[in-house]
Structures are given as structure tokens and as C-alpha cells.
Inverse folding.
């Protein structure tokens, strides 16, 4: 196992619990994208045009989260901050709301539970929302967890199940002596495997309600504010995560412009944030892929090497299903059909970057190239 | 000596250089307001209505800065980042410019060198200014120094001259065994002396030009931007200090609202700042006084205790003159007439807070109560 982020640790936990001998190589466990992640479990709000197979996987994994959280807390003794108040989707201006409604209509068309709310209903749920907010909807099944609690919990559970953490960095797959090697190294997977995983920079802020109080809102809030898309994730201890930029950059500097845009949008949506302490500004690198979907399964030329990377914005929500399916594959040698659309071979077949293949149109469906889309609305939400 | 900020260290240096035995008590030298200060030497831009005596002192101290900087660098071996490009005063909108011009007219009325610039002249000097900036002026004699270089330089110079730094905190004046005790403890002076020194919170940001470059501007820029007053101080190493809030609070938390307001104003004035790294967000406490002027001289009831505190926004610019005049007073026992308006007794005579005294009108001149204002225009700029 290469990589001790949530994905690697969860696979290690599952494999060790099945009696396999597991060594997890990572000089800095939990220091990758998960250290910056907000921990939204948002298959509904993140069901985007042209990503129906990914949406299916997100929904299937989110459905496993409640049991996964219970089991992990039982195994580790660590509470994960798993919260089920749901997610409010809001638009600040009429233009923002029009853009949001276009996506909500698509999501409703997939049969997903996005419930439009009248402004009075919105304010009944979250009185702290700015009076300017023009409208919104509720995604009641989109929950949240705290990634900074998740990683230590997984580490404890994996170690209690018998997994060993090795601090040596893996520079090459030949450094690893194992029957099966799982590469769950996030952005580091590119150098190890040649897979098209690229860093996608995200900057986020952590605020804290003044005086040790809980935040003045309970739902995760995802909003469009004058064209900016931001989210606000409240934690019981007073923390609020405000994010995130999506930048095609590989540095982790925090820039004045990004902080300005995040704060402006956040304060426009929820004015009381202006009085919150700004306690952290940080940037991380998501492992992105050409079709925004993860890469799960054996490398075409190395069946003993399994990729579990490329989770992009979805690493936390996809942790349970990735762990289950990869552990199944390691122990049985048989790939679950759920894995088929996410096979590492899909990029080799379609060229280095199938989304840019000549002659293809951009727009809904364009990112699904390279694998047939068999998902139906029933599949998505059953 | 109580307090090893710039004021305390400079007095210690001057006193030790005259052969006095000096012990400076401070558990954390340089950790007060100076660690957050921008280091503007701005007697002209900070010549505000109703503060003519203070303006006179600021001008007199700024005039000593070039020689002081040379002497200190000679004594310490430390370059101070003393820069003489001058300060540009700008207004973003027509309203901002109208407000700025009212102050510039007052400053010109005092005979101070504030030179209005045409927009083309403004952009010739700083092409990075936003095209929106409506107008400006040059205060060519308002310079800058880096307070984070100043403190170590003063510490070295004071120690080389024979001053001893003692890390014990002073809780009461009875803890100090000396012929003369100088209280240069910033906000801490209130508890030690009963003087009306109160904390005035300031939040500032430190940005850094990307890629190790120098900032894309050379002048200190002080601007009004949609009603916010901010300053931008460029350093040779790429740092830009962006400040500052002025808040009647005694905490040092950094708030989302303050960072938002500073960044918005800064980026509106100088758009390239959006691409700068945000490397530090920090708050400090200035030692404020009822009339915004420092408190310099013997306590009425304790002629052996000299106050050198209450420097508010002006601690860096006032360092040379404070050091010279207090060292004179310690060695000769005679107070320079320059100190008269700043005597600690002025508050006792006028009550606890003369600016709030019943029957007085607010506005220009109101803050000068308690001492006659004999400053003339000629005095100010001779």
C-alpha cells in the first residue's frame, strides 16, 4: 500500500481486517488533499452535467457512509463529526439563482432529492442567511464528516486490525515487495504509475465563531454568490470551512485574490462570518483526472498493481466504496462491476486525454467518453 | 527600563551610550505593537485635523530619522530597510478623492509638502495603480523603515553600548531597583502607572510578490478606497504590508471581515495584489491615549518614573526623538520644551478623558484640550 491518506488507510483497514498482511508506506500520513478537504458528502449537490457514472459511484459510496462511520468509530474510538443536517443550496442574485436552478433541474431529472425552498422556508432553516439571498433548495441527504478526525480514526483502526505504517517514501514501485501493491498516493500516483493524475489546486479558509460559540448555522451551505461558487461547512466545535478554489496549478501558496474571493462570497451569503476569526488559510492539491472520476483497478501492464487514486474533489465521500471494492479485488482477484467505468485502462484506450479528443463536442456527456454510460435514473438513487 | 520594543531599546541605547548603567526588562523583546507595525514614517500623511502638536513632534522626529538610521546601522551592522521613495496618496472614487483632498488642503495649509498629481503623473510614478484610481498626491518626505529589522538592530546597538536585557517581567514598579525607571511598556504602561493608555487593535496582512520578485510598486501607497483607508508598504525583498484596521478592542484575533475589507481595498487600488501570496494575517495592540499623542515625561507623583508610552500609530516614526529627549531628561534632569505638551500630567489636569469632557465640541482642535497649541505653520516644517 502506497499512501496513508483516507483512501489508503481505509483500504489498509479493510484488507487487514480480512487477515491480509498490510504495510502502508507514507512519510507523512494524512498530509495530502485530506488535510485541506472540507469533508462534504455531497453526491447530490455535486451531480454535475456529463458525470453520470461518477454520480452513481458518489451516491453508492454516500449510502455506505452511515454504517462506515459507525463501524469506524467502533473500531477506533474516534468520533468523526458525521452530521446529517443536510445541505442548503442557495443563489445570492437572480443570475446566481438562474444558474443554480439549471443544475438543480438536471439533478431532479436524475431522480435526486433536491427540494426547492421558498425564501421563507430557507430563512426558517437558516435565519443567518443574508436577506439578499434570492432562493435555494435542500439536499437533505448530502451530509458531512470532519476529514481531520477521519484520518486519525482510520489510522487507529488500520493499526488495530494489524496494518503496519512504514515511514519510508516510495520513489518507485520496485521499492515495494508485496504480492499486490495498491497505489493510493493521490497526486503522487502519476510519477509511480504514469496514470494521468494531475494536481488541481484548492485554497480554503477555516474560520471560527467568536467566543467559542457554535457557528450560527447548522446546514452545509453551498452557494453561488455573484458568480463565485463557495461552500460553508459548520462544525460543532465552532469551526467553519469556507472553500474552495479550483485551479490548474501545482503550487500550494495562498493568494490574496483567492482569499478575497472566498471571503467576499462567504460574507455576502452569511454576513455574520465577518465577525468570525480567520484561523487558517491553506491550499492543497487534489488528484484530478481527465474525466474527473477516480482511477480504480489494476494497471493494464501490471495486474499486481492496483490504482486507487484520482479522487479529485470526492476523496472523502468515496472512501467507503473505494475501500470495500479494492479490498474485494485484492482478496478475491475479481473486480466488482461497479469498478468497470473507472478502470485505469480507459485513458490508454482513448489516448492521453480523451476529453480533448478531436471532433468531440463539449457539454453534457462529453466527459463520459471512453466507456458506455449505462446508468439509469433508477440505478442512481436506488 | 521597562519594555524592549523600539522605544525602550532606543532609549536604552542612547542612555547606555552616555555611560549610564541600563537594564531593560522584557520577557519578549519586540513582541508588542512593533512586530505588527508597517514602519511608515509619515508625519505629513498622518497630519490629522486637531493634532497639530502631535504633527509637530512627528515632523521633528522624522527629520531625525536619516541620521538615526545611519548611526544605528553603523552601531549594529544591521540594514533597516530605510527607503526614501516617498508616499503616494490616492483616492479610488470621486467620493474618496473629495475626502482625501479635504485632508490634503489642511496639510498644505500647515505648509506641509503635499503635491497634487494629475492622473497621468500618478500613473507615471506607479503604473500598477488601478485605472479606476481617480487622483492623488505625493508626500515625498514620508519615508519607511522595516520594524522587524529595526528591533534587532536596536537590540544589538543597545547591548553593544552596554545595556543589559533582563527577561523577568515587571509586574509592579516596585520590582525595579533603579535611580530612574523608564516605562516604555506600550499598552502595559496602564497597569504599571495608571496612565490612560488603552489598547487599540490593528489588523494587518503581509503579502509577497510571486516568484521572489520585488513588488510592482516602489512608493508607500496610502489610499481611500470606497471609504476604507488602507496603506501598502513595499519592501525590497518582495513583501508588502497591507493595513490596517483601527479598532477599540483588546483582543488579537484576526477576523474574516477585517481581512476582507483590507484585501478588497488593496486589490481595488492595486489589482496585481490579487496574485500575491498571502503570507501572514496578524493583529496587534497599539498603545492609544485620549488625545492620540504619546505620554512622555515624569509621573506627577513619581518624578523618578518617566513615561515613554502611548505612541499609538506613531511608535516607529517617534523612536528617534523619544529616545533623544528621554535620554536627555534621564541624564540632565531637565525636560526639553518639546516634551511639554506630552507631559503625563495633562490627563490628570483635564480629567480621565479630556476628549469626552462635557461641553466641548468634537472636530478640529477638540483633541488638543489640556495644553495650549502654540505650534505655527513655520514651526511645523522648519
Amino acid at each position: 500500500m502506497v499512501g496513508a491518506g483516507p483512501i489508503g488507510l481505509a483500504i489498509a483497514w479493510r484488507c487487514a481486517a480480512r487477515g491480509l498482511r498490510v504495510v502502508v508506506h507514507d512519510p507523512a500520513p494524512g498530509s495530502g488533499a485530506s488535510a485541506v478537504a472540507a469533508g462534504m458528502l455531497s453526491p447530490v449537490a455535486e451531480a454535475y452535467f456529463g458525470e453520470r457514472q461518477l454520480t452513481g459511484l458518489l451516491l453508492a459510496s454516500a449510502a455506505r457512509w452511515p454504517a462506515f462511520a459507525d463501524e469506524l468509530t467502533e473500531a477506533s474510538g474516534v468520533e468523526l463529526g458525521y452530521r446529517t443536517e443536510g445541505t442548503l443550496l442557495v443563489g445570492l442574485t437572480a443570475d446566481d439563482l438562474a444558474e443554480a436552478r439549471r443544475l438543480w433541474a438536471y439533478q431532479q431529472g436524475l431522480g435526486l432529492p433536491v427540494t426547492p425552498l421558498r425564501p421563507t422556508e430557507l430563512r426558517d432553516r437558516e435565519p443567518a442567511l443574508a436577506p439578499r439571498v434570492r432562493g435555494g433548495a435542500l439536499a437533505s441527504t448530502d451530509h458531512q464528516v470532519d476529514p481531520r478526525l477521519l484520518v486519525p480514526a482510520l489510522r487507529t483502526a488500520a493499526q488495530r486490525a494489524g496494518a503496519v505504517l512504514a515511514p519510508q517514501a516510495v520513489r518507485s514501485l520496485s521499492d515495494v515487495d508485496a504480492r499486490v501493491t495498491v497505489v493510493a498516493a493521490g497526486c503522487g500516483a502519476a510519477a509511480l504509475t504514469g496514470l494521468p493524475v494531475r494536481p488541481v489546486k484548492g485554497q480554503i479558509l477555516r474560520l471560527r465563531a467568536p467566543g467559542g460559540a457554535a457557528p450560527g448555522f447548522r446546514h452545509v451551505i453551498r452557494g453561488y454568490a455573484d458568480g463565485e461558487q463557495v461552500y460553508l461547512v459548520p462544525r460543532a466545535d465552532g469551526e467553519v470551512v469556507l472553500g474552495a478554489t479550483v485551479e490548474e496549478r501545482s503550487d500550494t501558496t495562498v493568494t490574496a485574490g483567492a482569499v478575497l474571493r472566498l471571503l467576499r462570497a462567504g460574507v455576502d451569503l452569511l454576513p455574520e462570518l465577518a465577525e468570525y476569526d480567520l484561523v487558517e488559510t491553506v491550499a492543497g492539491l487534489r488528484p484530478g483526472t481527465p474525466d474527473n472520476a477516480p482511477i480504480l483497478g489494476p494497471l493494464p501492464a501490471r495486474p499486481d498493481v492496483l490504482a486507487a487514486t484520482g479522487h479529485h474533489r470526492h476523496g472523502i465521500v468515496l472512501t467507503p466504496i473505494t475501500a470495500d471494492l479494492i479490498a474485494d479485488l485484492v482478496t478475491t482477484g475479481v473486480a466488482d462491476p461497479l469498478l468497470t467505468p473507472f478502470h485505469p485502462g480507459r485513458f490508454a484506450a482513448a489516448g492521453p486525454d480523451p476529453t480533448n479528443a478531436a471532433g468531440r463536442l463539449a457539454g453534457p456527456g462529453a466527459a463520459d467518453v471512453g466507456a458506455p454510460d449505462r446508468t439509469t435514473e433508477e440505478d442512481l438513487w436506488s
About this structure: Chain A has two domains: 6-79+146-197+290-369, 87-140+200-287. Residues 52-76 of chain A form the longest helix (25 residues). Chain A touches chain B through 22 residues (CB under 8 Å).
